Amino acid sequence: MDMLEYLTGARVTCAYIIPGGVRFDPDSEDLARIMHALDSVEQETRRYMGMFESGPLIGLRSRGIGIMTREQAELIHAVGPTARACGIAADCRSDHPTYQKLNFVPIVRTEGDNYARVMLRFQEIMQSIGMIRTIILTLPDGKIRGGGTIGRGQATHKGEAPRGELTYRIKSDTHGRVQEISIQTPSIMNIEACARYMIPGVTSVADVTSAYISSDPCVACTER
Questions:
Q1: Yes or no: is domain 55-137+150-223 CATH 1.10.1410.10?
Q2: Which of 67, 154, 158, 192 qualifies as a FRET site for 213, CA 20 to 30 Å off?
Q3: Could you write out the three-class secondary structure of 155-199?
Q4: Phi, psi of 18 (to 5 degrees)
Q5: pLDDT of residue 204 exceeding 80
Q6: What digits encode the pLDDT tens for the residues 58-109?
Q7: CB of 210 within 8 A of CB of 61?
Q8: How far apart are CA 153 and CA 118, in angstroms?
Q9: Bridge partners, residue 154, by sequence
Q10: Cα 109 from chain centroid (whole Å)
Q11: In the chain, domain spans
Q12: Could you tell me the pTM of the whole model?
């Protein structure tokens, strides 16, 4: 978020990605600063991964807790890390041309418990750091955005958000103004998966909390 603020002036609503490309081009100083930040994030991520791999108290609340099987995840249509921690290699990035150029392969675990869901996210952070470095080192020159106009029509787009598949359906009028929009967030499926399969198998209130958090719920997103 520090880098988002540095590049765009905002930490959440950045308005950096716009129709046709991006709002402005980072210069060499910006890219060097990002590379430095990646080194710091990588170091801290490795430290936290070590805590989860060897910490006895963390293991008590994660290993073998909140188990959801692959069959259950498929039945409830779980998405993102919640699904991939159950052995399902579902990731919208696999079909994206840019990610294909980066030789992207989804990270999958098979334990299906709290530990798998947390560790898989750590692994994806490390994977993303590697891809960002590759992109910076191979970033070509050229236009940062194209032209085009928006007219009457409708479209559906699916992308991989941090929590999983995020779907937008938009309908516009002759002047390109949005008439209808619907958003299907990944938390809708993952909270249902947690309530239906992860929580019923736990034996303490503390484990209920850890199982719920491991599904990475966004209540605000779900209410949309």
A1: no
A2: 158
A3: EEEEEEECCEEEEEEEEECCCCCEEEEEEECHHHHHHHHHHHHHH
A4: -130, 165
A5: yes
A6: 888 899 999 999 999 999 999 999 999 999 999 999 999 999 999 999 999 9
A7: yes
A8: 40
A9: 171
A10: 16
A11: 55-137+150-223
A12: 0.91
